[in-house]
């Protein structure tokens, strides 16, 4: 039995076949539907809470008129891009903390959260300074200058102060998921969004005697809510009474994992930005139809992602305790349940093909194009059931380098060629969604082969630097 160090503490490394498998990991490997749902449902709440709040924010600002709404759209895009690239603070930290939790090293698991929080603070501060310096040309480039750029700039200048707070919350979510605590993050996120939800209409429209700040009021409300969230996550970290000193060796290991996850995230963004750009060339109805079905796809992805995160947490714990066989069994069970869930969702969307799109629009041209994309969408839901579950399994194992390479390959070989060929040969929205189908099928082949190979199931407290 060897040892490694995290946050200054020696932690045991348990090899496969060891008799000393911690009880926590044994429970993880044998987790049934109740345990998995107990992790997945609060996680789903965290995943959907912010999109729901953003719709509310949009409705509040929308009453100011089209100019304010356009400013919010541009500003929100900038904030999302500069904050969403660092999701490794959540997903990578979960993988590392879960292994230590599985090995019975609770202090080491929390120490991963400490180091991720330091990274969040440093990265958040750098992003804040850099984007503030380039905010004027950035908003001008996206908005095309003029009044929309001015509106967006006033929102972005304030909202950027929330970036370090968003990243701190990501890190907090990461280590808490790693120790299989998903209810507390849901409470913290709801508390922050309630604060934002109360302040947003008050500050935007000057209610209850407050000053009428208009669009900047939305940014102030956002930052206030993010401050509450980050404060609660920091309080949870301090309450664990571990060393809060920064340790570069641990942060460096987290950054290596983060590098692969960032590259994977950029591949997704390149695909979906390209899809939107091509859809725009086919006219307003095609753009609207594509956006409508894509938003439903994104919501469905969040639902399946909650099961994937549960798999990530439990697989990491099993591998941390040296239980590779249990991790492989867990991977098979979660994938099976995710596929059953996906098939049920596909059935619901197939049955609602004539009704669901009409809940969002009554434009006949948009509905016509939506009907074309709809059946591509329905057909890839069962594919997503397997892909997303195995994504979670491989992330839990720390196999981020393989996920990076396979995702980039699927994008380059499948998605992007179909997208641009659809423009060249005027295939329309059918060509765009055939690209997404190709992307998902190639990912299905890649992650299924990897899962079957078993190479990801490497045991030990530390996430392997390079899986075989």
UniProtKB/TrEMBL annotation:
GO terms for cellular component: plasma membrane. The keyword Transmembrane helix applies. It is a multi-pass membrane protein. This is Putative MATE family efflux protein. Belongs to the multi antimicrobial extrusion (MATE) (TC 2.A.66.1) family. PANTHER family: PROTEIN DETOXIFICATION 44, CHLOROPLASTIC, PROTEIN DETOXIFICATION 44, CHLOROPLASTIC-RELATED. CDD domains: MATE_DinF_like (cd13136). Keywords: Membrane, Transmembrane, Transmembrane helix. It comes from Nocardia tenerifensis. Residues 1-26 are annotated as: Disordered. The keyword Membrane applies. One of its GO terms (molecular function) is xenobiotic transmembrane transporter activity. Its main location: membrane. The chain crosses the membrane at residues 36-56, 68-91, 116-135, 155-176, 188-208, 220-238, 261-284, 296-319, 340-360, 372-394, 401-421, 427-446. It comes from the Bacteria.
């Amino acid at each position: 039995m060897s040892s490694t160090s995290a946050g200054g503490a020696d932690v045991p490394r348990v090899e496969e076949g060891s008799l000393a498998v911690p009880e926590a990991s044994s429970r993880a490997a044998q987790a049934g539907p109740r345990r998995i749902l107990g992790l997945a449902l609060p996680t789903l709440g965290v995943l959907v809470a912010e999109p729901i709040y953003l719709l509310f924010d949009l409705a509040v600002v929308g009453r100011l008129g089209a100019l304010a709404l356009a400013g919010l759209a541009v500003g929100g895009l900038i904030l999302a891009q500069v904050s969403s690239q660092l999701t490794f603070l959540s997903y990578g930290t979960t993988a590392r903390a879960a292994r230590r939790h599985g090995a019975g090293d609770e202090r080491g698991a929390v120490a991963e959260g400490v180091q991720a929080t330091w990274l969040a603070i440093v990265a958040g501060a750098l992003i804040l300074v850099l984007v503030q310096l380039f905010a004027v040309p950035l908003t001008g480039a996206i908005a095309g200058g003029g009044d929309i750029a001015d509106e967006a700039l006033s929102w972005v200048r304030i909202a950027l102060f929330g970036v370090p707070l968003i990243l701190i919350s990501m890190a907090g979510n990461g280590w808490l998921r790693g120790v299989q605590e998903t209810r507390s993050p849901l409470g913290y996120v709801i508390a922050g969004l309630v604060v934002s939800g109360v302040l947003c209409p008050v500050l935007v429209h000057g209610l209850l005697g407050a000053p009428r700040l208009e669009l900047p009021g939305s940014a102030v409300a956002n930052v206030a809510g993010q401050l509450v969230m980050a404060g609660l996550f920091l309080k949870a970290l301090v309450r664990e009474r571990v060393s809060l000193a920064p340790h570069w060796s641990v942060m460096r290991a987290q950054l290596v994992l983060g590098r692969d996850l960032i590259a994977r995230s950029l591949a997704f963004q390149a695909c979906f930005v390209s899809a939107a750009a091509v859809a725009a060339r086919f006219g307003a109805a095609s753009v609207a139809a594509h956006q409508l079905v894509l938003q439903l796809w994104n919501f469905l992805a969040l639902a399946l992602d909650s099961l994937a995160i549960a798999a990530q947490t439990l697989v990491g714990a099993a591998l941390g305790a040296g239980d590779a066989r249990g991790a492989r069994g867990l991977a098979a069970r979660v994938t099976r349940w995710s596929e059953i869930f996906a098939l049920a969702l596909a059935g619901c969307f197939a049955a609602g093909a004539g009704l669901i799109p009409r809940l969002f629009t009554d434009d006949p041209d948009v509905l016509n194009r939506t009907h074309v994309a709809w059946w591509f969408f329905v057909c890839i839901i069962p594919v997503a059931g397997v892909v997303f579950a195995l994504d979670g399994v491989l992330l839990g194992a720390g196999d981020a380098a393989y996920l990076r390479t396979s995702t980039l390959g699927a994008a380059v070989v499948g998605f992007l060629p179909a997208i641009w060929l659809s423009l060249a040969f005027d295939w329309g929205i059918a060509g765009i969604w055939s690209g997404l189908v190709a992307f998902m099928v190639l990912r299905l082949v890649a992650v299924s082969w990897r899962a079957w190979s078993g190479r990801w199931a490497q045991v030990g407290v530390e996430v392997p630097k390079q899986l075989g």
